[in-house]
């Protein structure tokens, strides 16, 4: 029989003391980092609130031709939400299909490179997306917009007249969809990969095809994760600035459901980017107030996405 070699008592005590010190340092460092993030977030919120509060008295020229700051921010919020929702309508089937291909359909030697390429899209600067949207995407979408207007002009979204430049809200939404695609796809493929193997094998053993297995085992398991991923992608699309500012030929703070004409609703981020350099006095406070509205909207969407994801993990 072999006997285990026990370390001397002083060495055991020294190792335990070192472990306790390391745990304490790591715990306090993690706590400090979390508190720092909360403090920075609170600081941004306080700054936006204090600097945006004077904008409540703005009107006329100070509010960019509107009777009050609310009549300015309201249409901008509408354009922001509309463009982001259109982007999510475009990205949802793409992200789900791409994530399923990477996690369940493509062979491993092909799935990994495809996953890396999708992740690399997140590293492309928004300015590059904006230039690509202006020079490549917008001119090529104009014939498609004309087709939409001729066949579906009875829908308010495609009422027209069609923009000759193609720099419309729908074009900006397509660019936003490509920018939100990496984060949504990355989250979805991790969620799909976490589906219990026993559930998938049981479905296949009962004679289900691969698609039936995905429909009956994978998608129900990942339902809350899909919602969370889409909400996080929505938060990404809501806050995008430069690409939208470059692609969108905005008319101003108007409410328009037409997404293929030159009379486009502007977004908050694009409006701030276009007007801040020439703003002075109370106009700066008006733009900061618009930034506060966007901050609250984005925070609420991201918080909802995190809550849905956490709730789904608890149920699982």
From TrEMBL:
This is Phosphate transport system permease protein. The chain crosses the membrane at residues 30-56, 76-102, 114-138, 169-192, 213-235, 241-263, 284-305. GO terms for molecular function: phosphate transmembrane transporter activity. Keywords: Cell membrane, Membrane, Phosphate transport, Transmembrane, Transmembrane helix, Transport. GO terms for cellular component: plasma membrane. The keyword Transport applies. It comes from Nocardioides cavernae. Residues 77-305 form the ABC transmembrane type-1 domain. It is found in: Cell membrane. Part of the binding-protein-dependent transport system for phosphate; probably responsible for the translocation of the substrate across the membrane. It is a multi-pass membrane protein. SUPFAM superfamilies: MetI-like. GO terms for biological process: phosphate ion transport. Gene3D superfamilies: MetI-like. Belongs to the binding-protein-dependent transport system permease family. CysTW subfamily.
């Amino acid at each position: 029989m072999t006997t285990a070699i026990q370390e001397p008592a002083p060495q055991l005590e020294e190792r335990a003391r070192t472990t306790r010190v390391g745990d304490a340092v790591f715990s306090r460092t993690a706590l400090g980092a979390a508190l720092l993030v909360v403090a920075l977030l609170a600081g941004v919120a306080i700054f936006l609130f204090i600097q945006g509060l004077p904008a409540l008295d703005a009107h006329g020229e100070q509010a960019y031709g509107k009777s009050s700051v609310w009549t300015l921010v309201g249409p901008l919020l509408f354009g922001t939400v509309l463009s982001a929702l259109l982007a999510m309508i475009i990205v949802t089937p793409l992200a789900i299909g791409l994530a399923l291909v990477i996690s369940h359909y493509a062979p491993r030697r092909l799935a990994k490179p495809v996953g890396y390429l999708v992740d690399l899209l997140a590293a492309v600067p928004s300015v590059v997306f904006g230039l690509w949207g202006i020079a490549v995407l917008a001119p090529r979408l104009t014939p498609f917009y004309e087709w939409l207007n001729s066949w579906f002009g009875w829908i308010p979204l495609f009422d027209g007249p069609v923009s000759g430049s193609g720099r419309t809200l729908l074009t900006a939404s397509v660019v936003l969809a490509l920018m939100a695609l990496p984060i949504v796809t990355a989250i979805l493929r991790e969620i799909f990969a976490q589906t219990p193997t026993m559930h998938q094998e049981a479905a296949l053993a009962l004679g289900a095809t691969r698609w039936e297995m995905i429909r009956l085992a994978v998608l129900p398991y990942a339902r809350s994760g899909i919602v969370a991923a889409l909400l996080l992608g929505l938060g990404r699309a809501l806050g995008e600035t430069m690409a939208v500012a470059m692609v969108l030929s905005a008319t101003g703070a108007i409410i328009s459901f037409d997404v293929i004409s030159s009379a486009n609703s502007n977004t908050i981020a694009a409006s701030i980017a276009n007007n801040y350099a020439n703003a002075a006095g109370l106009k700066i406070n008006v733009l900061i107030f618009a930034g506060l509205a966007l901050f609250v909207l984005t925070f609420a969407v991201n918080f909802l996405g995190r809550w849905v994801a956490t709730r789904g993990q608890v149920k699982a």
